């Protein structure tokens, strides 16, 4: 029996796609650009290997539906609330800026204003897939500019819906366009209201009964029926299938089954979604690019520059420093995958046909291809921009430390700790420093956090730690320790480098996410680097040992042993024999530990001589901290008071016995 044409076409598409995407991967180019290139290769303007384009477009439409469905599943009210600043200010400003530039450019080029507005919609969208992948690979998703970039991308994804509704009316010659648009928006609002009601009442109950069946196949079929069914119902009202799929995803996102639904649909989405990008590539005529190379290159430059400006300015408007604005602007400078979906709507509406459509495809693909390289070069551009900004005093308020008026006078502090970042790690460190009466200041770039915590009495200031003037205001020349507790690799490296130059004797501790970043941070001047990856491994085996009812003392001993040996190896990879000596016991097992004297401690009110720490345990008292003042080698006549912190030197057993003398309650 002969093989159906559609199967042979699919086989050709996937074989060529695998080859091209593999090459793009080796060249560190985005896979989306690879699928577009594969489509151009097998399409009618390339080798013409695919015979039936209509069948490919049908499957590509399924890919679009599944793509928007998964985007909807990933959305939630919590995500929208977390990004409200960028959603309400930054995102609208970014899209409005691109629309304004496109309208002005279209007017200069002689385009009708409706086509110019449509071009603005096309160019205002950035690639969620490419940017999120790049941020994840660089470990910058949780950085300041990473969170801001994701917030703008969320708004862009939401803006696709009204853009798709408006597109048919932009192409209409009717004068009653505004009324039709309002009518379509009203229909969409009613439909969304109905779907929200279903989300709260019908769908969760349906999924609950399906889950009770314990049938994975039934659950998967139900999810697909919900996706395609709601999309079909949406199309009956005159709206697009893609909009219905997005709403279906929102329905699922508000249930406890959203994660499993995403996991089930992802393989289908990725497979069909690749066909969508291939189908777009099939429509690209390489001859147009070769016929107008100067025009294409010029448009690529204009798009990159325009989108950079329109993304950087909103970042500054919401209070982010210039460095973050530059990084976000570069990350959002390309044209996104949703623009291709919108372009197809524009084709049907007569807004984008013939050669302009081919030019749009070429420009879009090229901006996507160069994006990974631009993001790689972005930190260097940000550093130069920052240096230029300091030289010419641009946006001085964005990099000057301040909090509730405290920044108007000079700090009077010495021998203190500077904490960069007030996330979970920064808060815990600040609490411990408070309890031990060690002076400290905090630098944070979240204005809301600064205002809230400063009212609570926390010595926190708004400022960018990568700016030398800010560190000088924090008295870095007189500080003893700098702790960098931010999830931004670029900021961490830059802060370490600047801090080491300003205070060569400063002890610098850096929190990082991955082991691979340790060597660079040490070379830049960090004294201690704490990788979350390493600490997570310790926590994992601690939980396993606890499950097997191992004594707590053994668990603590193993954890300390791994830290002692592991960090030594990580700091000095050229000395692997160190861990061997530690395991073999050929090096003296000497440790330093601190002990706080509480009011009910048996040592409170006694002198060191009366407690007899060294005669009774063999442990030496090498320092004592009282009211923030540290005295080394304290006299035996010193009387211990509640709140004192005693620093002990000895072996683990010796220190444990000394802690029994100093810390155990009288009631025990």
Helix-strand category: alpha/beta
CATH class identity of the largest domain: Mainly Alpha
Which outline best applies?
elongated
CATH topology (fold) name of the largest domain: Na+/H+ antiporter like fold
Number of helices: 28
Strand order of the largest sheet: 3-2-1-4-5-6
What is the strand tally? 10
Q: Helicity level, as a percent range?
A: 55-70%
- How many individual domains? 3
Q: Return the CATH architecture of the largest domain.
A: Up-down Bundle
Strand content: 5-15%
What is the CA-CA span between the terminal residues? 88 Å
List low-confidence stretches.
396-409, 568-588
Largest sheet: 6 strands, parallel
Q: If you average the pLDDT, what whole number results?
A: 77
Instruction: Round the Cα radius of gyration to an integer and report it.
Output: 31 Å
Give a description of the structure:
- The chain is of the alpha/beta class.
- It has three domains: 5-385, Up-down Bundle (Na+/H+ antiporter like fold), CATH 1.20.1530; 406-512, NAD(P)-binding Rossmann-like Domain (Rossmann fold); 588-668, Alpha-Beta Plaits, CATH 3.30.70.
- It has 28 helices and ten strands.
- It has helices at residues 5-26, 31-42, 53-74, 77-82, 84-109, 113-124, 128-137, 144-170, 177-212, 216-236, 241-253, 258-282, 286-291, 293-317, 322-331, 337-348, 355-392, 424-435, 447-455, 468-473, 489-502, 518-524, 532-547, 552-571, 577-584, 608-611, 613-617, 652-663, and strands spanning 417-420, 440-444, 460-462, 481-484, 507-512, 528-531, 591-596, 620-626, 629-632, 645-650.
- The strands form two sheets. The chain has a six-stranded parallel beta sheet, sandwiched between helices.
- Helix 18 (424-435) links the parallel strand 1 and strand 2 (440-444).
- Helix 3 (53-74) runs parallel beside helix 11 (241-253) and helix 10 crosses helix 11.
- The longest helix has 38 residues, at 355-392.
- The radius of gyration is 31 Å and the shape is elongated.
- The N and C termini lie far apart (88 Å).
- Residues 396-409 and 568-588 have low confidence and may be disordered.
